[in-house]
Design a protein that fits this description.
With 375 residues, this protein is an alpha/beta fold. The chain has two domains: 10-308, 2-Layer Sandwich (BirA Bifunctional Protein, domain 2), CATH 3.30.930; 316-373. The chain is 37% helix and 25% strand. It has 13 helices and 15 strands. An eight-stranded mixed beta sheet has the order 1-5-6-11-10-9-7-8. Strand 12, helix 13 (328-340) and strand 13 (345-348) form a beta-alpha-beta unit.
Length: 375
């Protein structure tokens, strides 16, 4: 899908389309303040993408923080109501440390949360909206899906001790089969169970092929239930998503202290990092004293800048040079005449450095003269 013509930037148009999409599915907009009590974030630092938080003290002495996350606020304000699912979407700015510069950056985040009495339909709907979100931005997309219930069952069946799990999960996220095997050996995992864990690394791709391979894993009852759920959800997605756009990939790993069940990540052609990320986070709900379930995702439209900003041949159509004693009305008339033809123009007393222009003109007593012109 090519960006439509208009005055909005590509990322702004994408945000507008996403908000309209979520509204059509009955999601209401969730609005929050720019800041929350610091205590909310410090108690859940490991849930956050970055543990760097901008804080300030209110006149009352209470320590506050500019929000680095939206989900925690939604969970905090949610209510446990049997049989009810709260469906909200948001468009908020969050404040995180930029990995390249090391400085704080304001990031636009658009997403939705489905909180409450979650069932399989709720999971399917959120995943379908993730697919539609990616498709609203580009036809060239992939949604990678994993199930932490299967991962957990394989690790438990192998008898992997808690102290070894984080390192193994990190290698799984990196698709490092050799590293997984080495860590399993160090943890005393036998060859058969090591092969099952390594299989999670090496088995990925088209859903039906991967599902068949997963049937061969020695799963416990909870693992079989997770596999059955994954199969059911993918059967719904199969009829809705373009061929080749859905993959099973167990390198999609989120913190299992907070996440459970299905997790996923969306990618667009031309953007190296994931633009969409989400999953079930029932464990976070429990940690925050809630009995409900939850699933949601976030989209990061700031990443679209690399798609929406192709290298321009020219920065400006016309550079108009005028002298120190030029008639200001004449300068204004010349600028107005040029812009009336649909061209962009910058009026300058001297040629700006490092500017790419199509036409260089000079204002003289007899009018506007072309000094240099590029095709």
């Amino acid at each position: 899908m090519m960006p439509a013509a208009g005055t909005l930037k590509y990322d702004e148009r994408a945000v507008s389309r996403l908000r309209a999409l979520y509204g059509r599915y009955g999601y209401s907009q969730y609005r929050m303040r720019k800041f929350e009590e610091y205590d909310l974030y410090v108690r859940n630092k490991s849930f956050l993408i970055s543990d760097h938080i901008i804080t300030f003290t209110e006149p009352s002495g209470k320590l506050m923080a500019l929000k680095p996350d939206v989900t925690l606020s939604i969970v905090k304000n949610s209510k446990d109501t049997p049989g009810y699912v709260q469906k909200v979407y948001y468009k908020e700015n969050v404040y995180r440390v930029d990995q390249d510069s090391g400085s704080f950056k304001e990031i636009t985040q658009v997403g939705l949360e489905c909180v409450g009495d979650i069932d399989t339909y709720s999971i399917c709907e959120v995943l379908l909206l993730a697919v539609e979100s990616l498709r609203e931005i580009s036809d060239a997309f992939v949604l990678d899906i994993s199930h932490l219930g299967i991962v957990s069952a394989v690790l438990e069946g192998a008898g992997v001790a808690e102290e070894h799990r984080a390192a193994i999960l990190r290698c799984l996220g990196e698709k490092n089969a050799h590293g997984v095997a080495a860590l399993c050996a160090a943890a005393g995992v036998d060859a058969g169970h090591t092969a099952s864990i390594v299989k999670l690394v090496t088995t990925y791709g088209e859903p039906q092929q991967v599902l068949s391979a997963l049937e061969e894993l020695p799963l416990c009852d909870s693992g079989r239930a997770a596999l059955s759920e994954l199969r059911s959800v993918l059967a719904v997605l199969e009829g809705e998503a373009p061929a080749g756009s859905i993959r099973i990939d167990f390198s999609v790993i989120n913190d299992m202290n907070y996440y459970n069940g299905i997790v996923f990540r969306g990618f667009l052609e031309g953007i190296p990092s994931g633009i969409l990320s989400g999953g079930q986070y029932d464990n976070l709900m429990k940690k925050m004293g809630k009995s409900s379930g939850a699933i949601g995702f976030a989209v990061y439209p700031d990443l679209l800048e690399s798609l929406s900003m192709p290298q321009k041949e020219y920065d400006i159509d016309v550079v108009l040079l005028y002298g120190e004693g030029s008639d200001l009305s004449a300068v204004r008339r010349a600028v107005r005449t040029i812009t009336a033809t649909g061209k962009s123009v910058t009026a300058q007393k001297s040629l700006p450095g490092k500017i790419k222009y199509r036409q260089l003109c000079r204002l003289t007593e007899s009018g506007v003269e072309t000094v240099e012109e590029h095709a």
